[in-house]
Amino acid sequence: MYVIAVYDVDSKRCPKMLKLCRRYLNWIQNSVFEGEMSTVQLKELIIEAKKIMDERTDSFIIFNNRHKNWLDKQVIGKELGKVDQFL
Fold it and tell me: Which of 26, 30, 70, 86 has the fewest CB neighbours in a 10 Å radius?
């Protein structure tokens, strides 16, 4: 499945969330990640994120779709974390 994940956590937890999300997804912008992952990987990501977060004050939002081709993406301005395709 194709996933977009966005987090907003206290600044003291940001480095841990950044490191966690980068293990599973590609960084595209501050606190925003995207990429392909399995259902199991998504469940692992959520479990690990909950260990880092304070669910009373922090948020972690996940959008998913069957495939990247089912999603229209439009970038206005500079694309910060561009994912290059190597052949």
Answer: 86
Helices (H), the chain: 14-24, 39-52
Q: How many helices (H) and strands (E) does the chain have?
A: 2, 4
Side chain identity, residue 47: I
Q: Which residue ranges form the domains of the chain, and what is each CATH number?
A: 2-68 (3.30.70.240)
Give the β-pairing of 59-65 and 26-29: unpaired
| Integer Cα distance of 36 and 39 in angstroms | 10
Distance CA(56)–CA(39), nearest Å, equals: 26
Q: What is the spatial distance between Cα 85 and Cα 43, in angstroms, rounded to a whole number?
A: 26
pTM: 0.79
